[in-house]
Amino acid sequence: MEIDQHPYADILRKELMPNIWCSGCRIGRIKNVFIEAIQQLGYEADKCSVVSGIGCSSRVAGYLNLDTIHATHGRAIPTALGVKLAKPELHVSVMGGDGDILGIGGNHFLALGRHGLDVNVFCMNNFGYSMTGFQHGPTTPLGARTITTSGGSPYIPINPVAVALAAGYTFVARSTSGHPYHLIDCMVSAMKNRGPSFIEILVPCILYERRNKIKSLEALYLEKAEIKETLSKEDVDQSDFMKKISLGIFRDAPVRERPQLSLVKSTKKLADKKFDVKFRSRASGIKHMQIRMEGTGGQGIVQGGKVLILAAMNMDPKLNSTLTKRYGPEMKGGSCLTDVLLSSQQIDYPFIETPDLLIMMSDLVAKERGGEVVIKNKGTVVVDESMVDPRLLETLPKTVKVFKIPATQIAREEFRVVVANNVLMGYVCKTTSIIDKNCLKAAIVKSAPPGTEEMNLSAFETGYKFRKS
User: Fold this and answer.
1) 244 and 297 share one domain
2) Which pTM does this prediction carry?
3) b/e string for 286-305 if b means 16 or more Cβ within 10 A?
4) What is the pLDDT of residues 238-277, one digit of tens each?
5) pLDDT for 222-240, tens place per residue?
6) CATH number at residue 388
7) Do the domain assignments include residue 301?
C-alpha cells in the first residue's frame, strides 16, 4: 500500500516543525503516543482539546493540530476544567511536566480529583524544571543534583501516584517514555475511563543525566521497569526508581457515585410570618443630598447604604441615586465607608467630597484622616457614641448638628450586635426626617436575612424611640 504522508500528519502542526526539544528528547515520542491513542479510539479531531502550562513537556500542545490552549504556569488544570464545563462533550486532556502540574499547579491537581470531572492529566515526570536549566522540583530524588541543589537535594520527593490515588482520581497509572506500547494502552484506558484520570510518565532529561552522571535513564528504565497486571501498596510506595520501577494501572474504576446533597438546615429560626410594611410614595423635595456612612468592616456599613437608597426610592421613585463604597485592605475590621448620593437631577459624578449627613458607627475613618471629621458647615452628624471618641467632635463648627446614641451598646444588650446599624438607622430617621419611617422599615425588611426581620425592625424602633437622658 502506498503511503503519501505520515499517519500522524493530520494531527500535527507541520508548519511548526522542527520542534524545540533537545536532540534525543523523548517528549516527542509521548506526543506521538497520544496521537496514536486518539486514533485508536476513533476520536474526531474537533472533539479533542489539549491544555498545557509552561515547560518542555507543555510544548506538546503547541504541536498538535487540535483545539489547544497554552496556559500560564501551573494553571493548565483549572483552564481545562473551564473547557470541560463549557463544552462537556469534548475529550479534554492536560499535558505537562511534574513542575507545572505537581509543583506550581499542585493545589489544582488535588482539586480535580475532588471535583470528579472527566479530564485526563498526563504528567511527564523528569524530576525537575528542565526548561530553566534543570532546577529542583517536587519530584527531584533525594540527593539529586540540580542547578538549585548543587550539593544534592535535601528534600523527600512527592509520590505522584500516591497523591493521585489519595485525591480521588478514578484512573491512575504509571508508564515510561521507553515503553510506548504500554503507554498507549494506559492512555486509551485513561481516556475511556469516566472521571479524572492521571498517568505518571517517567521521561529522561539529558540535563538531569549530565548533572548526576547517569549514562542513560532510558536504558535504566528499560532495565529496572516491570509491567504488572496487579499492583500492591509496595508498588505504590516506590520512591527510588534507580532500583525498581513498577509500571501498570493502579486504579481503573468508573467515576464514583456521588451521594445526593444533604443540605444542613439553618439554625436560624425562620420567620413565622411575612412582614409587609406599607408605605406611601411622595415627592421628597430632595434636590441634592450627600450622605456618608462611616465605620468598620463587619458593622453593616455597605448594607446601611443600600437600605438608605432603597428607602429613598420607596419614598420618591423619581429620585436618582448612586452608591459607592470603600474598604481598607483588611476588609473585616478595617476602615469602611459608603457614600449615597440622592438627586432630583441626573447624576454625572457619583462621589462625595463633603457630606450633608454623616453617620458615624466608628471613628476609624476619621482617625485615618488624622482625626478630621468631614461634614458641611451646616450639616448633620449622627454618632454611635459607644464606638466614637467624643473628642473628635469637639472641633466641629457650632453650625453642625450632632446627635449621639449608644447604638452598639443597645444592640449588644437588647438584641445582637449585628443589628447596631439598624438601631442607628432608626435614630437617624427620627432626628433628620430625611426619609419617611415606613419607607425605611420596608427597605430593612427587604434587606434583612430571612428569619431576622422582626429583630431588625425591633432594633430600628428602639433607635427611633431613643431619648437622650
Assistant:
1) no
2) 0.59
3) beebbbbbbbbbebbbbbbb
4) 777 778 889 999 999 876 654 444 444 444 444 455 677 8
5) 888 889 888 888 888 877 7
6) 3.40.920.10
7) yes
